[in-house]
Design goal:
It is built from 3 helices and 10 strands. By secondary structure, it is of the alpha+beta class. It has 2 domains: 39 residues, no CATH class; 104 residues, no CATH class.
Length: 149
Amino acid sequence: MSKRGQLARIVVAVLAGVTVTPALAGTGLSGPGRRMAGLFATVLVLWAGEFGRTVYCQGKLTPQDYGRDHHPRCFTLWMAGAGVKTGISIGETDDYSYNVTKDPVHIHDLNATILHLFGIDHTRLTYKYQGRHFRLTDVRGEVVKKALA
């Protein structure tokens, strides 16, 4: 089985809550002889798109053109491993998937949470540009505690 195939099986197993036992050798996944004990205690798996999708299409709806429109305010992503709480969902939208109705997570909060899972204090991670220190989480990012195990 390819390394990509092994990784896909591991991700599916982690999402299903199954104990993962394939091997880790060198820099990639291989061989059935070794175990990955504790791998997902330190590895963060994150899946996300660049934007959300609406439940409606832009323009005329036809059998050949039924794509959905871009949506910058509401989107879906999932995370596994590295101290992420399993089996939870944070945030909800209205019936049209247009507006956030419960537990919004700002992108700065998401970035703060990811950095926290990496063991990095987002308030101390800065870069200097034109004489000012900037943060990836700007001045308002907060770790989403509900997402942590």
